[in-house]
Specification:
Shape: elongated
Strand content: 25-35%
Helix content: 25-40%
Distance between the termini: 102 Å
Radius of gyration: 27 Å
Largest sheet: 4 strands, antiparallel
Strand order of the largest sheet: 5-1-8-9
Number of strands: 12
Number of helices: 3
Order of helices and strands: HEEEEEEEHEEEEEH
Number of domains: 2
Structural class: alpha+beta
């Protein structure tokens, strides 16, 4: 009788362990799928239609802003997945640039007209897709300050802001995923060659584009920069 009792208790314990294991296996995927489902159904998928007579002029204005990563405390940022509640949250960066020193501000950069270019391409394997954002622009000439700028920016990660002709401001770079700049200077060979520096910027991103929710007044920054050059002594 005692042996039979031990066998019965042992079997009961085994059955309880198996039942507990089955509960864990069955409920864990359900919790994950609920989480993924909640994120996926935010706003659902909207129809992708093109309106009759819509304008679609491409290109970007011939000015950019550069903000070194080491000069700011906070950066406009996409909401984490757990806080996404609308479609706009997927592509609009909230917040603003806060500099470590109040005397600092974004650097205004001139680009030769029709050379400012932006694009994004997919990267990664299945279930791990992301995007590589690419920017290119050209700055003319060979003044000394160009080569000073090139040396400084070559190893300075940071953030760029570009503006298209519809007034949308694109943010290139996010905290932990800053933009990296590669300058390429060409002094030309023939007198008709274009002389200057081509800048290529790359950064990894979750979206093909990130927009600033609170646009920056680039016109004012540009006016301030021109006034500073005209009157360097203040």
């Amino acid at each position: 009788m005692e042996n039979k009792s031990r066998i019965t208790i042992s079997n009961v314990l085994k059955l309880m362990f198996i039942a507990l294991l089955l509960v864990c296996v069955c409920t864990m995927p359900e919790a994950h799928s609920e989480n993924y489902l909640h994120y996926a159904i935010v706003g659902g998928f909207s129809p992708m239609l093109w309106g009759c007579g819509e304008e679609n002029m491409s290109g970007f204005k011939n000015r950019l802003l550069f903000i070194p990563e080491c000069s700011v405390k906070t950066v406009p940022e996409l909401a984490p997945k757990s806080e996404v509640t609308t479609d706009d949250d997927l592509i609009f960066a909230k917040g603003s640039f806060v500099f470590i020193d109040n005397s600092l501000k974004p650097t205004v950069i001139y680009a030769t007209p029709r050379t400012a270019k932006y694009g994004a391409e997919g990267q990664g394997e299945a279930d791990g897709k992301s995007f590589k954002q690419n920017v290119e622009y050209f700055f003319p000439g060979s003044p000394k300050q160009v080569h000073i700028h090139n040396r400084k920016i070559a190893n300075t990660p940071g953030y760029y802001v570009m503006e298209d002709f519809d007034g949308n401001q694109y943010l290139i770079g996010q905290p932990g995923l800053p933009a990296i700049t590669t300058p390429k200077f060409d002094g030309g060979q023939n007198m008709t060659d274009r002389r200057g520096t081509t800048y290529t910027i790359e950064c990894d991103a979750k979206s093909t584009a990130i927009f600033l929710e609170a646009p920056i007044d680039i016109d004012k920054l540009l006016a301030d920069a021109k006034a500073e050059i005209a009157n360097p002594n203040g």
